[in-house]
Amino acid sequence: ERGLQLLELGGSVEEDYIRIARCFEATRQRCCRLEQDGHRAREQLARVEAERAALEVKLKHARNQVEVEMKKRHRAEAELEKQERKLQLVLELLMREPWGSEALSREQCSVLSALAGRRLGAALAPVRKSSAVDESCQSLLSHSDISYDRTEDDVVRS
User: Fold this and answer.
1) Which of 19, 20, 57, 73 is the most buried (most CB within 10 A)?
2) Would you say 94 and 105 are in contact if contact means Cβ atoms under 8 Å apart?
3) Contacts of 143 (CB under 8 A, 6+ apart)
4) Mean pLDDT score of the chain, rounded to an integer?
5) In the chain, where are the structural domains located?
6) Cβ pair 113, 125 in contact under 8 A
7) Is 125 exposed, middle or buried (0-12, 13-18, 19+ CB in 10 A)?
């Protein structure tokens, strides 16, 4: 009887060992898959970090270019204002002279007023026609319209 009990227990133990071995194998396979997934994730992370670094370099170059262009624009606007002041002085001088207003035809006054802008337009061409199109030489965008904010750069990297 005891022998039979041992045989019965031995059969049950063998099945338990087989189940445990199968569980270990399933766990080993899962670990292998997770290891492969981790390796793929590290490779993808390296690619994304390289792309991010390249984009940061491009962003830095673009910001430098914007800064250079803004400086050029400021210089050009300052030169434009300087030339407008000179033109305004010349036109005022022409209008002060007794021969100035007589020597200029209406067409010349119109051209000069267009060059001088709106400030002298009324003085030079009193019969100026109204136009639906604004022909002033001013830029549609001023440098103050451009917003340049670096707060998005201050990302905390961990």
Assistant:
1) 73
2) no
3) 70, 73, 74, 77
4) 75
5) 1-79
6) yes
7) buried
